[in-house]
Amino acid sequence: MEEKVYSQNNNIRKMVYASMFAAMMAVGAYIEIPVPISPVPITLQTLFILMAGAMLGARWGTISVLVYLLLGIAGLPVFSGGSSGLGMFFGPTGGYLIGFVLGAFVIGSLCDRYGREKIHFNVLFMLVGLFVIYLLGILQLMNIASLSLTEALALGLLPFIPGSILKVLAASIITSRYTI
């Protein structure tokens, strides 16, 4: 009986944390840093996606991203620039949104398997997760906007590398120091 109560409390705690990360992703989408060579600004939503995957693990990190995306699909203006709706998944940046789910899952799976206490492992795991996010984003950008790989990389990856590196470092440090 006591074990069942602990399990229920632990699940409730994970649900609360997943909800909090979904809320932080929504807020992070509004924190924009303009990039002079790109029409798309850097946002902090990916910082919270990286942290959700690492801190909550594969299951709950993925659930937190799905909750965030469902809020946007439902019409709440939680995506970058206050956008929302199912149509966002079919536009040029839709691949990144889909990549958020898989990226969080990959990061969470790696952290679940190898641990999240060491910064250098967290950096590696988050870089792998970001690779997944950027891969899906670039592929959809190429498809929807009829861009070559070079053009898509120039628009959808290169301007964001410095910000992504800073987000990975910050998320790795935070994740290695705090446990949920």
UniProtKB/TrEMBL annotation:
Topology of this chain in the membrane: Multi-pass membrane protein
Transmembrane region(s): 12-31, 65-83, 89-111, 123-146, 152-174
Alphabetical UniProt keywords: Cell membrane, Membrane, Transmembrane, Transmembrane helix, Transport
GO cellular component: plasma membrane
Membrane is among the record's keywords: yes
Protein name: Biotin transport system substrate-specific component
InterPro entries assigned: BioY (IPR003784)
Subcellular location: Cell membrane
Recorded family membership: Belongs to the BioY family.
Organism whose genome encodes this protein: Methanolobus profundi
Any one GO molecular function term: biotin transmembrane transporter activity
Source organism superkingdom: Archaea
